[in-house]
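Checklist before submission:
- one chain only
- standard amino acids only
- sequence pasted in full

Submission:
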Amino acid sequence: MILRSAILIMSACGVISDSILIAFYPQFFEMRYGLTSTVHVGAYIAAISIAVMCALPFWARLTRRIETLHLLWVTQFIAGSLAIASAHAPTVQVYWVLTMLMFIMKASYLLLFPYLMREEKPENHGLVIGMVAVVVHVGAIFGASVGGSALQYLGPEASMYVMSLGDFVQMGICLFLIFSGHYVRKNSGKASINNDNPRVEKNGKLARPAGAWIALAKLSGLMLLFDMSAYLVRPFFSVYWESIYASGNQTITGIVFAIPGMVAIVGLIINKSFLKKTFSNLDHTAVNLLIGATGLLLQASSSPLLVLLGRCLYGWSLFQVVVKLEVTLFRISQPAFYDRDFAVANFFQNFGVLLASFAAGYIVSWIGVPMSFALAAAGFIFTAIIDRSLFGVDRHHQRGLAAANAHQPKQLALEEG
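Returned file contents:
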């Protein structure tokens, strides 16, 4: 319980740190360096995705030799130090170099997720992933609100100082867990809890079950499509909102940007209490993707009230689909491969964010922000079609749960992957 709580707190700190400026990069670059190019903002956010997607597999491989928490306290210390250094970057080129190194270090905290899932029973995966999703969204709420206020009242340099704080808190928690003994030591035997005993080849390496890579590839492709659609509207939402609701208050903008996080809290409560029993249709991936597409189209209306309603529907869809995809990932994987499979899936997710970030800059510069919402809605519908045709998230999710409850090898859920 102490380990789970600590990891959730660390995840919250990481998300808050990442969310400080994510909604305000257009304003940040204009205030700090006088840059107003939408293409530049899209390219910068895309570069963040490249840094993360390339770094995470390296960190996952490194944890085979170094215990995860021992690695994280070092990387988070370096990330926090680089954030402070970037606050004093004299040119935008230096800022790029320092912050890209910072995000490479930050990426290591994402390994907390598979680290936690190895210690949880399969039947608890849905609840834990839901909790992590809520932590992520609540962290986004707080981070966006704090980031907007810091940028408006304290300036762009102070925003970087606030960002560094989350990294140093993570470092402190890592050191606390290490010195108090509340972590999983390698070769202690505890890390193999709930392991399905994958085959061992003659060379001593673990062998994947038949069909595992195919199922993982299909699911990762689906995640790429979903994330590319979901994040197409993110880079310029704050600018769009301020153009239709001219309050001039960036704190309000940050709160509106983070409405999906508020909806995620409601979603977790509903899921845990009565969703699957009373409204079982709302648990279907295709239904939630259509709800998300409707929410995205409402946000293209340029009416503040319809945008707020659209943010709510979009937030519901985002939470439900993300939880379903993440649970399915761990259903088709095995504890011994959690780090590796999570790194692969995360690579494709970040590649989707990368494509969305590059596309967003050009779409906004050519045809405006409202069209980005319409294209994202089309992406949600296309994701639903691809899922129904080539993979079937709901089918794999249910088979994986049945296999876990019956203590059967997970490859049974992969035969039709």
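Reviewer check: The chain has one domain: 2-179+210-414.
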